[in-house]
Specification:
The chain has about 50 residues and is mainly beta. The chain is about 0% helix and about 35% strand. The chain has strands spanning about 5-10, 15-25. It is flat, with a radius of gyration of 17 Å.
Length: about 50
C-alpha cells in the first residue's frame, strides 16, 4: 500500500506555497518514537485530577 504526501503552507492572506511536491510514500508499520507527538499539555486537553 502506498500513500501520497504533499507539503504546503498557507499564509495569513490565504496564499498557498508548495514546500514539497506530491510524492508517493510507503507508510511505516509503527512510527519511530522520535516521530510521535507528545500529549497536549494545554488546559483544555488536560483531564481533571480528582
Amino acid at each position: 500500500m502506498t500513500m501520497t504526501i504533499k507539503v504546503y503552507e498557507v499564509d495569513a492572506a490565504g496564499i498557498t506555497r508548495i514546500v514539497r511536491e506530491e510524492a508517493e510514500v510507503i507508510p511505516l508499520e509503527q512510527p519511530e518514537a522520535t516521530h510521535q507527538f507528545p500529549a497536549c499539555e494545554c488546559p483544555e486537553c488536560q483531564k481533571p485530577t480528582q
